[in-house]
Structures are given as structure tokens and as C-alpha cells.
Amino acid sequence: MSVVTKLDLKELEEGRKYLMSGSVGHALPLLLVNGKGAVVKDISGKEYIDCTSQAWTYNVGFSHPKVIKAAIEQIKQLSHCRTSFETIPKLRLLKKLGELAPGRLKKISFCLHGSVANEGALKLAMINKPDAQKFLTLYDNYSGRTLATIAATWPYHPISRRFSPFMHNFIRVPNAYCYRCPFKVEYPGCDLLCAEFIKTTLEKGAEPVAALIMEPFQASGGMIEFPEGYLKRVREICDECGILLIYDEIQTAFGRLGEMFAAELYDVLPDILTFGKAIAGGFPLAGVMLREDLKPYDPAVHSFTFSHFPVSLAAACATLDVLKEENLLECARKTGDYIIKRLLEMKEKYELIGDVRGRGLMIGIELVRNKKTKEPAYEEVLRFEKEALKRGVIFGVSKFLGMGNVVKIKPPLVINEEEVERVLQVFEDLAKSLTPR
């Protein structure tokens, strides 16, 4: 037993039976007790290199001392404050984010969850396009699990369809998914048909659309980086058709792709941008950035009791300082390039590895049973995840409940060389053992 030797395990077991739901998808058999850097430890003392950063939140690593210190100091002063009032960490963070925000995205609001931030973005679109009630989104988009956002999150799954009465305001268009092109054409000879289909949908649609909401790098839906020129053409189409463009950067912002924002990496700016997850070094915080010439919320339209949680705001200030001081964006670029290079070498050796894609430390490996037919290796992905746990590595898996066939490598940006080599060794061992013979 580790640091928790005094815990009553029977008490913990008693508590477990009252839990309504254990996880987003399927529960993993780990009771975690602490973490540092890129490593987390379970109740038995076993260590794991975490390639999920605990839902992609620990970009600066577990328990970064500067983040923890900032949170503790704030707790001593003020742990809660209504959104009506100003606090020092709120104003400090607004200044930092305002100076970092891409382009004219200079109006900022806070909340505690990415789903709520995306709801806020939808509200802003409707405020600025009062005659439009519909939204566009992509196949396999992920925007959250509130009643407003689950409609933009894999609605074809039975779990989502249970909430169909709330799912009538989204129109879906095909992904720019070159590995499995829905139009059965090849880039670049396709002339970005997937983008042009968005324009056709807008021109032929019967109801006015307020905005297109999308991830600039599609994360939970398959770790899909869009082809060059796609985002630029989408921006042009939104302008031509008079609708707003919303970027969901809940997963991509704050260094994950090797830049502070995907909007900067791809040099295409949205009208509204949502952020969250990694902003506060493990503390709950999310928010919305709005183009400064657009109309913001009226009072009370998007306000929640704990939205401006001072502890999270203070932790976020420290997190942004750490990203800069430790040059973690450059670390993400260099480490990510190395991992992708090694994975591409493995792809040539193992039939199981169908595609390798990503930027920075946002890497997806699509597993297939046959490279020619591209039959998805659903069962193999779940076995991959479970076997990796036994070897001390936590990999992510795309989608949920066995729907995905993509392994995700998205560790904290502070992961060191020795840990990277261990992750790659475990990955190759499993790729070799699970490759069909």
C-alpha cells in the first residue's frame, strides 16, 4: 500500500456502491491517489505514464508546484465570489488572456465546463443572428453532453438519441476526413469538396443558420487534422453566407498542438472561440472569447454560481506563466514530432496501424484489421487500452463505449525523454502482439 495506508478500504468500497456512473465511457480499474509531471500513481503504489493528461487537462503536468501554490494562496484569501463582483485573479487572468487571444477575440467570459462554454457560444451566435435558430456542425464533432450540446455530439449513437426532443437545431455535414473520405475522393484532387458541401447546404437549406460550430482539430471524434486549405475555405464560406464561425478549442488551446491556440497554428480566425480543460492546470475552468465588435451577453444570460471560481482563476494565471517560463509549447512541438516519426516507422511494420496523424502532443493512431480494406479494429483498441494499463501506460481511445478505433497519445507537455521511450516501447509491443496474423 502507498501513501494511503491509513485509509479504510472497506469504507471506500462502501462508497463505491452509491456511485451512479463511473466514467464517460467504460470504467478503468484504477483508484488514483496522486500524480507528478506525466506520472500518476494508484492506491497500490503502481505508477502509470498518463497519455490522457486526465481528459487532456494537465498540460503543465500533475501537481505543478507553481499552480498548487497559487491555488493554496487564493484559498487562504477568498475561495468563492459571486460573478457580480470583481476579484484580483479574475482581472489578472482577463489581462493575460486578452493579450494572448488571437485576432479580435478580446471579449472573454468564464464558466467551469467546456460543455457550458459551448452552450455560451451558441447563445452568442443567436444573440448576434437573431433571425437564425439553426447550427451547422460536422460528422463526429464533439461539443459536450448538456442537452444543448449533445445534439452536436455523435447523435447517431443510441445514447444520444434518447434525448432527441432536444436535438432538432443542428444540421450535420460530412467531415474533412481524408483517410475515410465520405465522398470517396482523394485530396488534393477533390478541390475540397467537403468544404464546398457546406456552402451547398447553406444555400439549399430551408431555415437560416446562425453559425457553424466545429473543432479546428477534431479530437474525440477520431483525432482528425483537416487537410491544408480546408479551414481557410470554411472561413470564406461562412463570410460569403453570412454566418458565424465558432471554434471549439476546449482540447486544442494552451499548447496541446504546439501553439497557444489552433487558430494561430492554422492562421484562420473564428468569430467565437471556446476554451477550457488545460487552462487551469487541473482545476475546473472554461470560457468563451468573442470578437470585440460582436454583441456580448446581456446581464444574467450566461451566469452561474461558481463561474468565476477564484481558486481556478488563480491557478489559470499560474498555468499560463508556467507554459511560457518552461517553454512548453516548443516542448510539445519537438516531442510530438519525435513520437510521430517513430509511429510512422511502426506503421510500415505492423498491419494493425492504419494511419498516424496529429500535431504537437495531440496524436491519434487509427487501428485497422486490414490496411487495404481499412476495417476498423474496434475490439483491438479496447484490448490495447487494457493491456497498456497492465504495462503502466494509460492510452486514450476515441469516442466511447467501443465506438472508436483510434488510440490517443496526449500526455502532459512536461513528459520527459525516458517516459516517451517507455510509451513507445509499450505501444510497439502491443502493436506487434495484436497485429492480425
Could you explain the architecture of this structure?
The model has no long low-confidence stretch (mean pLDDT 93). This protein folds into 2 domains: 9-60 and 327-434, Alpha-Beta Complex (Aspartate Aminotransferase, domain 1); 65-325, Aspartate Aminotransferase, domain 2. It has a 7-stranded mixed beta sheet, sandwiched between helices. Strands 13, 14, 15, 17 and 18 form a 5-stranded antiparallel beta sheet that branches. Helix 4 (88-100) crosses helix 10 (310-325) and helix 7 packs parallel to helix 8. It has 437 residues and is of the alpha/beta class. Helix content is 35%, strand content 18%. The protein has helices at residues 9-16, 53-56, 65-77, 88-100, 114-128, 158-161, 193-204, 230-241, 262-265, 310-325, 328-347, 378-390, 417-434; strands at residues 32-36, 39-42, 47-50, 107-111, 134-138, 170-173, 209-214, 217-218, 224-225, 244-249, 272-275, 286-290, 353-359, 362-370, 375-376, 393-394, 396-397, 406-409. A hairpin with an 8-residue loop joins strand 17 and strand 18.
Give the termini distance in whole angstroms. Answer: 40 Å
Question: Please, how many domains?
Answer: 2
Low-confidence stretches: none
Q: Compute the gyration radius: what is it?
A: 22 Å
The CATH architecture of the largest domain is: 3-Layer(aba) Sandwich
Proportion of strand residues: 15-25%
CATH C-level label of the largest domain: Alpha Beta
Spatial shape: globular
In the CATH scheme, what's the topology name of the largest domain? Aspartate Aminotransferase, domain 2
CATH superfamily of the largest domain: Type I PLP-dependent aspartate aminotransferase-like (Major domain)
Strand elements, count: 18
